[in-house]
Specification:
It contains 3 helices and 3 strands. The protein is an alpha+beta fold and about 80 residues long. The protein has a single domain, classed as MutS, DNA mismatch repair protein, domain I (3-Layer(aba) Sandwich). The two termini are about 20 Å apart. The mean pLDDT is about 90.
Length: about 80
């Protein structure tokens, strides 16, 4: 028997769960080498940041809006 669970905005949501101070703030999670955005929350999406975009393309928006960035944490 297998269970498949799809969690909306999983990595960004879990990072916020561990960091309640980030509630309502834009959060993104980067790939293994921090080269691409693999997850983001609704606040980051509203800024126009796109999932799977290269980090360098979104760097100006990220800095301007003080988006919190995390490296991938597969232990989650």
């Amino acid at each position: 028997m297998f269970l498949l669970c799809d969690v909306n905005l999983m990595y960004a949501s879990v990072e916020q769960l561990f960091r309640p101070d980030l509630k309502g703030k834009p959060v993104i999670v980067l790939s293994n080498n921090d080269g691409a955005i693999v997850a983001l929350n609704k606040e980051a999406k509203k800024l126009g940041i796109k999932r799977f975009a290269p980090y360098f393309q979104a760097k100006d928006i990220i800095r301007r809006h003080q988006v919190t960035c995390f490296s991938s944490n597969y232990a989650l």
